[in-house]
Amino acid sequence: MLSLRYFPSMSGERVRQRRLLRGWSQAELGAAAGMSRQSVVAVEAGRHVPSVVAALGLAAALDCTVENLFGGGGTDAVLPVLADVAEPAPGTPLAVARVGSTQVWAPLAESDASGFCLADAVWTAQGPQLLDGASGDGFVVAGCEPALGMAASAAPGKGAARLVVVHASSGRSLAALAAERVHAAVVHGPVGGLPPVQAGVARWELARWPVGLAYNGTMPPLGEVGAGRVPVAHRDSQAASEEALHRALAAAGAAGRVAGPVASGHLASARITAEGRVAAGVTIAAAASAVGLDFTAFEEHVVQLWVDRRFVEHPGMSTLLQVWCSPRVSAQLRRLGGYALAGAGAEVTT
């Protein structure tokens, strides 16, 4: 039988967070739970202990148990998508979503080339604070594929089919998948040279593209790059493109003492190069083309979507594949150049 012992330790903030994750107003939660908006306001502010009937109504409306909503222990985990991300400064904008029972977050840039970014939450001393009207639903995918942002733009902006993209190298993305902090990871590497497949993971091909060096006019000698005498924009040690660079250096008999800034992604590497800050950048052909650079390939990589099998029926999973294979996105990828899409959307079973 339900006991009032749950209520003295209740968390009004927990009610508020779950309400905001559903995108509801206080009036909408009240209607769903069979109580007034004023009562919801009082519960969230910690000024009112709901009756047993009201507590059951709130829990049912928010799709959780009374114990989870009002109990003193066992709160859901709140974790960064990428384990190596430092705690943000207060007020930092965040993307927020739920993976299983874990609420995950990732810092957002305050702005991009088109203007200010829309956040789900901001960082506070207590952790992520959801913004009114924000949706904590969605399908969280980490990876360095630059076109993931395009796919997210073509997907619904709210609800379970929303795509929450966290840009990270293949190695960091796989670590997030193994830690159950994302629904899926996008990884790439030479055919036959991808990392070992984790247990409980399903795979789909997205594309194939060349990895190499972007430069303006003349490609620097690999011997000079490997000796650190010519700085290049390169990637973190867990990036598949960084591994490709070192394989190319080894094949040329060059050293591996690469110097230069560590770029956050393929487009960032190409932009740093186009700005003249380095002689070349490790990137993909489409990124080089997008900023008007020349490009020399080292390897062709296959790009795959690795999905936790528990989430293959997630609405965001089907949305991602549908959007990726849509005529609109496919045409734009072909226009950019460098994307081979013959196998796009095919499940990988071998």
Automatic annotation (TrEMBL):
Domain HTH cro/C1-type: from-to ranges: 15-69
A GO molecular function held by the record: DNA binding
Annotated SMART domains: HTH_XRE
Name the UniProt record assigns to this protein: XRE family transcriptional regulator of molybdate metabolism
